[in-house]
Amino acid sequence: MKLPQHIVIVPDGNRRWAKNNGKPSFLGHKEGAKTAQKILEKALKLNIPYITFWGCSINNVTKRPLLEINFLFKVLEQIFKKAVTDKTIHQTQVKINVLGKWEKLFSEKTNNQIKKAIKATEKYDRFTLTFLLAYSGTDEMIETVRKIANAKNKPPLIDGELIKNNLWTHNLPPVDLVIRTGGEPHWSSGLMMWDVAEAELYFTKTLWPDFSIEELESVIETYGKTERRFGK
After folding, report:
1. Where are the chain's structural domains?
2. How far apart, in whole angstroms, are the C-alpha atoms of residue 186 and residue 160?
3. Contact assessment for residue 163 and residue 210, using Cβ atoms and an 8 Å cutoff
4. Residue 168 · residue 99 · CB < 8 Å
5. CA-CA distance, 132 to 141, in Å (whole number)?
6. pLDDT in tens, the chain (232 residues)
7. Is the Cβ–Cβ distance between 158 and 181 less than 8 Å?
8. How far, in Å, CA of 168 to CA of 194, rounded?
9. Catalytic site includes residue 210
10. Which helix (H) or strand (E) holds 33?
11. How far apart (Å, rounded) are the C-alpha atoms in residues 185 and 205?
12. Which of 96, 91, 136, 135 is nearest to 114 (CA)?
């Protein structure tokens, strides 16, 4: 079966899941973290070399209630703390990559834990697990244009290769498949707008905490049967 080489997951629906289950909204993030772990482990078993996971936008950590933001930081701290010693991460040689403005907007404690996970996996190259944290695709493109415009050696030609080489995602391949849960089929903050140009899109009404391994396998199976024409 043809497998996607790069999957992006947008795990929407944590807060609605919590509301539907009579729980405080921030507890949805805790349940969502459990789902993230099992889905990511399954993706590794399926030998998907690049997995990118949407963690939060800039607005998620600047405009939501402080209690929820602080709880999100704690959840992220736990995720990255576990990654430092996680047997699966090290046995399968997963490189952890984090993109976005997290260093500027996250707490010092959270940042330190993220940096430890990055450092502990920096030499691995079999799989790449990228987290988008305090991320905006619009900001990424703006900074890319500014970087090119302010370069000391002005490029003779601005082409796709030059743009890609200056993106935050310059080390990642094009996205093959985007999975968005939560039943709201819209984009998120210009999510990797350059890299998703030819991606297959899967929108599901399933709220993220309820997203199952079986649904992941079904999506990937469908992808494997789909002829990608790339506009031809």
Report:
1. 6-224
2. 25
3. no
4. yes
5. 15
6. 789 999 999 999 999 999 999 998 878 888 999 999 999 999 999 999 999 999 988 988 888 888 888 888 998 999 999 999 999 999 999 999 999 999 999 999 999 999 999 999 999 999 999 999 999 999 999 999 999 999 888 777 889 999 999 999 999 999 999 999 999 888 888 899 999 999 999 999 999 999 999 999 999 999 998 876 655 5
7. no
8. 11
9. no
10. helix 27-45
11. 9
12. 96
What is this structure's pTM?
0.92
Of the CA atoms within 13 Å of residue 102, those in its CB half-sphere come to: 22
Which one of the listed residues 14, 60, 97, 111 is annotated catalytic? 60
* CATH dotted code for 6-224: 3.40.1180.10
Helices and strands (H, E) in the chain, number of each type: 9, 6
207 touches 13 (CB < 8 A)? yes
Q: Which one of 12, 86, 176, 195 is the catalytic residue? A: 12
SS3 assignment, position 210: helix
Spell out the residues 6+ positions from residue 27 whose beta carbon is closer than 8 angstroms to its own.
18, 71
Rounded-to-integer distance, Cα 59 and Cα 99, Å: 15
Q: Strand runs (DSSP E) across 22-171, as ranges?
A: 50-57, 94-99, 127-135
- H or E segment to which residue 201 belongs: strand 200-203
20 is catalytic: no
